Amino acid sequence: MMDFISIPLVVGIICYGIYSLFELFVHKKERLMIIEKLSEKVDWAVLDGKLQLPSFAQKRISFSALKIGCLMAGLGLGLLIGFIFHTFVRVNFEGDWQMISMAYGASVLLCGGLGLILAFIIENKMGKKDDE
């Protein structure tokens, strides 16, 4: 039905990709030229002690395990709630599959989001404790 649009669409996407690739390389060369021009004009003696990398000696806690753990716990809780809802609907109403699948999806997304919010709250409280 829409076969007439597929060939021009593919050609357009390919041309845009090639254009973007060339543009990427040109911008890289321009940035390097700007950096070279600026480096000639900068007096490095003035910036002697001001340009330093941040100290990585401080112990930083990674919260990725906390986030993943809270997300997985929330997804598991959402699946459990969806299963309980499915059992309730099947016993009492003999509900249709669309409503049951929607209940599973909604409960998983809701509890997963709540798990991430919980991880965010815990991370903020631990961050405030470290600042004190």
UniProtKB/TrEMBL annotation:
Cross-referenced Pfam families: DUF6249
UniProt entry tagged with the keyword Transmembrane helix: yes
Transmembrane feature ranges: 6-26, 68-89, 101-122
Keywords annotated in UniProt: Membrane, Transmembrane, Transmembrane helix
InterPro entries cross-referenced by the UniProt entry: DUF6249 (IPR046216)
Domain DUF6249: 12-123
Highest taxon above the source species: Bacteria
Coiled coil: none
The name this protein goes by in its record: DUF6249 domain-containing protein
Native species: Parabacteroides faecalis
